[in-house]
């Protein structure tokens, strides 16, 4: 089994995905254990002094004015976890919780939090045992970190609350820890606070969304090329010299992807030869690289933000290298929240242009010789009419999901925390948006492959080899081609799985080589 080593320098996106989705094992480096021990010495020295230090010998948030004596500090740390584990609503997905736990361990291991090495080791042990705390949808404002979600995770370390075992059964956390030989932790000075105070949930969801969107943007380039081919459009608009004079990197990448998919097609270039000749293709076809490319550049910026955050130690207060313990505002989720919202906008627009191409394929007045709705016997058969309705409903929902969460702020903690990021909410809606985009791309794939097969069957025109590979793989996956009406939902679900699992990209790359 793959092992991800956690050191003091942060984490990689690949490591996050491996732990969250691939169940990779986690191991603390010797360097991290040494850094943990050094920082703990600083915290214990401060705890022994009479002067109050936030998080060590005071209350929290608006209650930080009270000095807490040594005899109450274990109770203080236990109480912050219990009181902050106040989430409500549906359970959050297992992979999100594993990412959340791993990223909190990443910050703890940096040596800037003052947590004891044994607490960090217990966090790793819980991940390795496949124990996943029950975390709820609502409870984070994205400032002071993802407080409620992280509190539910810390509660499991204490042997309290509920968690999901490796078999998927939810049981009391204490039972699960005992079954795997893990001792619950008794939190000491600063440790409860340090386990709660980070942007880990929103960051984990951002990292996984970026991985998904990289595949989806390549998939969307492929389906755009298939639609261009099915509409007998021209690939001359994809020429590198046209994109070199507007040098947005993503635009050039998308155009190059489409051009490689269309190499060898006998269907392209007939846009001026049919019964309704065109001087140029419609925007949804001709501008596909510009729209997808802008989204790719947005992804690149979001990766930059994610990489910076993965290299960060987000806590308050923090233990600095010179031994000082300082309060700060690094837990504010604004940098992550903004890009989560930005990505939701890009996703909505990519889905919008994708749906417009599907609609064009189904409209006999604009499809340049294809049957209405790609039906076998139009009138008796409705073809893909309602598949486009479903796609349109998804696009409409994506437009609502593109409304930014990060422009909202609700003051909390008796106005001490008077400006919050709502980054967790931005992350949750982006996850939904990614799922919807997968479905939108799948509908275009289903329509475009059927349209290409109708062109091939009716006029003997030969599609590009890469297009044939995509069609053959989709049909081998059990997704039907042209023919009389049938129960459509299973075919659409099959196309969705084909896109989500990366099989579309894999099939095409078997002909084109790696696409960007």
UniProtKB/TrEMBL annotation:
PTM annotation, UniProt: Contains an active site 4-methylidene-imidazol-5-one (MIO), which is formed autocatalytically by cyclization and dehydration of residues Cys-Ser-Gly.
Catalytic activity, as annotated: L-histidine = trans-urocanate + NH4(+)
Record localization: Cytoplasm
GO biological process: cinnamic acid biosynthetic process; L-histidine catabolic process to glutamate and formamide; L-histidine catabolic process to glutamate and formate; protein homotetramerization
Taxonomy, superkingdom: Bacteria
Gene3D superfamilies: Fumarase/aspartase (Central domain) (1.20.200.10), Fumarase/aspartase (N-terminal domain) (1.10.275.10)
Statement: the UniProt record of this protein carries the keyword Metal-binding: no
GO MF: histidine ammonia-lyase activity; phenylalanine ammonia-lyase activity
Documented EC number(s): 4.3.1.3
2,3-didehydroalanine (Ser) found at: 144
Cross-link (5-imidazolinone (Ala-Gly)): 143-145
Annotated family: Belongs to the PAL/histidase family.
Entry protein name: Histidine ammonia-lyase
Organism of provenance: Streptomyces paludis
């Amino acid at each position: 089994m793959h092992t991800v080593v956690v050191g003091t320098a942060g984490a990689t996106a690949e490591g996050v995905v491996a732990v969250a989705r691939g169940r990779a094992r986690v191991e603390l480096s010797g360097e991290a254990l040494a850094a943990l021990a050094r920082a703990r010495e600083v915290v214990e020295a401060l705890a022994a002094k009479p002067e109050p230090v936030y998080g060590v010998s005071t209350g929290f948030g608006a209650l930080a004015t009270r000095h807490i004596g040594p005899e109450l500090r274990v109770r203080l740390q236990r109480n912050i976890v219990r009181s902050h584990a106040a989430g409500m609503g549906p359970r959050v997905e297992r992979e999100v919780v594993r990412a959340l736990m791993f990223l909190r361990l990443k910050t703890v291991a940096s040596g800037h939090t003052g947590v004891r090495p044994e607490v960090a080791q217990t966090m790793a042990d819980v991940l390795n045992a496949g124990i996943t705390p029950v975390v709820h949808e609502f409870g984070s404002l994205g400032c002071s970190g993802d407080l409620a979600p992280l509190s539910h995770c810390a509660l499991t370390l204490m042997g309290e609350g509920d968690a999901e075992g490796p078999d998927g059964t939810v049981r009391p956390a204490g039972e699960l820890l005992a079954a795997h030989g893990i001792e619950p932790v008794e939190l000491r000075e600063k440790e409860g606070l340090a386990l709660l105070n980070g942007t880990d949930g929103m960051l984990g969801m951002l990292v996984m969304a970026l991985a998904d969107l990289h595949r989806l943007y390549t998939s969307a380039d492929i389906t755009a090329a298939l639609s261009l081919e099915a509409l007998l459009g021209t690939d001359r608009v994809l020429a590198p010299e046209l994109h070199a004079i507007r040098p947005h990197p993503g635009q050039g990448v998308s155009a190059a992807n489409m051009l490689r998919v269309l190499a060898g097609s006998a269907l392209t270039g007939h846009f001026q030869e049919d019964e309704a000749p065109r001087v140029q293709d419609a925007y949804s076809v001709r501008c596909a690289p510009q729209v997808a490319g802008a989204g790719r550049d947005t992804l690149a910026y979001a990766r930059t933000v994610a990489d910076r955050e993965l290299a960060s130690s987000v806590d308050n207060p923090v233990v600095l290298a010179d031994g000082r313990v300082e309060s700060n505002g690094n837990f504010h989720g604004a940098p992550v929240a903004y890009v989560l919202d930005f990505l939701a906008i890009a996703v909505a627009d990519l889905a919008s242009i994708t749906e417009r191409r599907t609609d064009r394929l189904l409209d006999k007045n604009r499809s340049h010789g294809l049957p209405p709705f790609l039906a076998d016997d139009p009138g008796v058969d409705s073809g893909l009419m309602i598949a486009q309705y479903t796609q349109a409903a998804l696009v409409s929902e994506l437009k609502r999901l593109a409304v930014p969460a990060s422009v909202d702020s609700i003051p909390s903690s008796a106005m001490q925390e008077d400006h919050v990021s709502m980054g967790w909410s931005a992350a949750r809606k982006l996850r939904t948006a990614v799922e919807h985009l997968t479905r939108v791309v799948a509908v275009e794939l289903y329509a475009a492959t059927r349209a290409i097969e109708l062109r091939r069957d009716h006029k003997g025109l030969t599609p590009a080899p890469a297009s044939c590979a995509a069609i053959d793989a989709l049909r081998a996956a059990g997704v039907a081609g042209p023919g009389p009406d049938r129960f459509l939902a299973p075919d659409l679900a099959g196309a969705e799985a084909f896109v989500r699992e990366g099989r579309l990209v894999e099939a095409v790359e078997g002909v084109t080589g790696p696409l960007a």
